[in-house]
Amino acid sequence: MTGPRPAWSIAVEAVPEVSSISPIDDISRDWAWGGSSGHGVRVAVIDSGIERSHPAIGNVEGYVSIAEGPDGMIYEDGPHDDVFGHGTACAGIIRSLAPECELYSVRVLGPMLSGRGAVFAAGLRWAIENGMHVCNLSLGTTKRDLFALFHELADDAYFRRVVLVTAANNMPIPSFPSLYASVISVASHEGKDPEVFFCNPNPPVEFYAPGVDLRVAWAGGAWLTTTGNSFAAPHIAGLAARILGKHPTLTVTQTKVVLRALAANVRPDAATP
Amino acid sequence: MNQTPAGPDDDARATIARQSQEIERLRQRITQAQAAERLRDALDMAGLAGTIAAPLSHEQLLDRVVSTAAQVIAARAGALFLIDEEANELVFEVAIGPKADEVKKFRVPLGHGIAGLVAMSGQPMAVSDAEENPQQARDIAQSVGYVPQTIVCVPLTADDRIIGVLELLDKQGAPSFSPADIDILGLFANLAALAIEQSQAQQNLVQLVTNALASAGSGAMAAGPTAPEAGLADDAAYRQALDLAQLVQEIGAQGETELECCRAILQSFARYLRFRANPLGGPRPSW
User: Which of A57, A158, B261, B286 has its CA 20 to 30 A from that of A186?
Assistant: First the structure.
């Protein structure tokens, strides 16, 4: 039988090869990311921009800055700076863990408030449709009328193997996309080792990474000591980039399983390199 | 002094020390939880009092939220900004602290500062070396009259929109604000947002009652074209609130004791409902 088949049915001989992962107990840090620098992995920082000239950044492979115009979204792809410093902080953390990943700055946070939820969604869509492998989302929206739109985007990313790493929001108000099952939601722990993280058996927060009193890169070539889940998420994004650098065909689920298997509270021995 | 090898006594002493620390931490958390509970009650009371006769002003309510937050979290100063979406500006509402009295109300454009960033990203954050980066704290410095060393800032959310930010400055007794401080400040931000909503609803309600009473004298009803809030007057929830406010006002007219009795009854009923809705206390933070 030839021609396209419906998605629920596929000829056995046509089933594509997929990556297998070793039995979960055998997964080691060395297997997961040993020797990987994130080379070839495209990481989008969907934030306030990235300051390329900051010593913590190195290079920025591509830029897009999004704003709401009178006739829809306006996309500008020339180099830009960081409006606040927040995106540079996230990018610096990712760079320190995955020195050879390709950083893309998707600027959705600016000094204009109006339409910020829609601009954020447009940035996420841009990243999914432009071949990013990992997206760092240290921001969220509380607008209920955007729930379905972000849910659809998060599912789309999941099916296209784009890992969305989101900062959990600890406010008493629900914020998304960090609440969706298809993303990797991260909060902070007080440790300082950038490669030590924990998994949380009580989602929606699934992982804890360093995010307390961290020295991070900031706009204007500055450094800032800060606390926040915003800075925990890029640790997991950086490690995901390294895992995908070594195992490029892993699905989002597999990447999450690998991370979970290497969490310090699951495999205390795995935490010591 | 002779060094003695660590023995069972030392182990026991270490365990006791650890346990005492743990007890102290728990004790602090309980104190914080109790303070938050007291503030909730205070706000309930303030809201109810406002509906009856003597409204606590918008500023007084917010001032109370910020100063209680600063007291509970042990901060030297604090500030609350609301967002003006049209102008893309932060509007300074409340400041408490050593130089707060010298500061007048002002507006700052969004962008560059920590307050603007938190308003945009919706993500709470703390900074522990703000004085090294004065440009990050310019808006805050302007609001309290000095550059703080440490900052914690959380968004204020009402009806699923970010409407402002709440900040505390200069943690006392510790080098920086902790994740637990961020969590607790988030609860206060929630209260502040509620207070803002409540005082706005209250202003409408007070106006509605005033108009109803004024127009009752001339034989017209509140829902008539003389009421400025004609749309609101048609709203069932507002009608119920109005009925309730009128009842309470009637009781209040009888005297202080009757009013106090009425307040106590309503408050215990509200407390019972809160308990019934959530017998084990609020949701735990995910930090």
Answer: A57
Cβ-Cβ contacts under 8 Å between A and B: the total is 137
User: How far is the C-alpha of B190 from the C-alpha of B158, rounded, in Å?
Assistant: 8
* Tens-place pLDDT, residues B193-204: 888 877 766 666
User: Under an 8 A CB cutoff, do A220 and B135 touch?
Assistant: yes
Q: Are strands A102-107 and A42-47 parallel, antiparallel or unpaired?
A: parallel
Q: How many residues does chain A have?
A: 273
DSSP secondary structure letter of residue A16: P
Rg (CA), chain A: 18
Chain A residues closer than 8 Å to B109 by CB: 111
Q: Which residues of B sit within 8 Å Cβ distance of A?
A: 83, 85, 88, 109-112, 116-117, 119-129, 132-133, 135-136, 152, 154-155, 157, 160-162, 176-179, 182-183, 186-187, 189-190, 283, 285-287
Q: Tell me which CATH code domain B59-194 carries.
A: 3.30.450.40
In tens, the pLDDT along A153-184 reads: 999 999 999 999 999 987 878 889 999 999 99
* Lookup result for tokens 């994130």: A38
**Active-site annotation holds for A47:** yes
> Taking the domain A23-271, which CATH number applies?
3.40.50.200
Tens digit of each residue's pLDDT (9 = 90 or more) over A181-239: 999 999 999 999 999 999 998 889 999 999 999 999 999 999 999 999 999 999 999 99
- Least CA distance to B177: which residue of chain A? A227
CB atoms within 10 A of CB A176: 23
Please identify which residue in the block is written with the tokens 């607790």: B184
Q: Are B23 and B216 in contact (CB under 8 A)?
A: no
- The full set of domain ranges for chain B reads 59-194
Residue B287 and residue B285: Cα distance in Å, rounded? 6
Active site residue A193: no
Which of B160, B177, B191 is the best residue to mutate to test the A interface, defined by the most A CB atoms within 10 Å of its own CB?
B160
